[in-house]
Amino acid sequence: MTLAIIVLACLATTPWALGWIGDGGTPPYRDAELDAYFLPPAWGGHDAAEQGRLEAEAALHLLGTDNLGRDLFTRCLLGGTISLGVGFAAALISVILGTLYGAIAGAVGGRVDAVMMRIVDVLYGLPYILLVVLLAVGADAVIDQWAGGELSSGKRTALNVLTLLIAIGGVSWLTMARVIRGQVMSLKAQPFMEATRAIGAPIHRQFFRHLLPNLVGPIVVYATLTVPQAVLQESFLSFLGIGIQAPLPSWGNLAAAGLSELNTVNPRWWLLLFPSLLLGVTLLALNFVGEGLREALDPRSGRSK
């Protein structure tokens, strides 16, 4: 229920959030006469000296505003849409690559299977986050060299998002490949698969009509467990400044911006708290959903029927 509320709130308010945030310029609700654009949450209280001046303005912003007067609630909603969108897209790429790779290795077997799985073992031995960072930075450099600085900001942002989700999805398919390979090898020994081979069914028919329907359960389970990993990786890279770039918000770069505003004189705590809280609650809910599906659908689970 919590996950559904967060996802629906982010998706349903995306047109509204895009209309309010625009391209990062001066938002229509920013008061140009204010000396400081930071406003605390509407329920957080204000400094006594600024009470009269800020009370009416702050009442409009449930979670406060940032240094440009932009509503944090609106930016968190749009940031959630972007973080979840990149996470789900990267997970989809991971599922497709892992399913195809594992199915080919398990179906062909022999030396081909041995070589393919040794490649997976080598990739498993490399630091996961290092691979993602190298792919993201390398692709970014290639785009800059290829475009020669002639890309518009919109196209540059779209390519940046595409590069990020390909980098995350391109290195997170290893577990899926191993799982699918094991399932395919187990199914190959079943009587119904021996019958399909005995009647001379072509390879593609064996896979799509007999193997794939029996792989749906494991694919759904491990795809659900891959989504929170992809969301976390996107947020981590954006937090480091090599993921989603401003003015486009994500929970990662919103948290990074909030961290820079923590100080002992005038801490703007709300800028760090709310993006981090939304990210944490979403990841926890996604993991609960994944564990529930694993218990219900994974044939190796003792509770599955």
Describe it.
- The protein has one domain (2-24, 70-297): MetI-like fold (Orthogonal Bundle), CATH 1.10.3720.
- Helix 1 packs across helix 4, helix 4 runs parallel beside helix 8 (174-188) and helix 6 runs antiparallel to helix 7 (153-169).
- The protein has 305 residues and is mostly helical.
- It contains twelve helices and no strands.
- The protein has helices at 2-12, 14-21, 51-58, 72-108, 110-125, 128-147, 153-169, 174-188, 191-198, 203-240, 251-259, 270-297.
- The chain is elongated.
In short:
The chain has 305 residues and is mostly helical. The chain contains twelve helices and no strands.
Key phrases:
305 residues, 70% helix, mainly alpha, MetI-like fold, elongated, single chain
List the helices and strands and how they pair.
Blueprint lengths: L1 H11 L1 H8 L29 H8 L13 H37 L1 H16 L2 H20 L5 H17 L4 H15 L2 H8 L4 H38 L10 H9 L10 H28 L8
Annotated CATH topology: MetI-like fold
CATH architecture: Orthogonal Bundle
Q: Assign the structural class, choosing from mainly alpha, mainly beta, alpha/beta, alpha+beta, or little secondary structure.
A: mainly alpha
CATH superfamily: MetI-like
The count of domains is 1
Helix content: over 70%
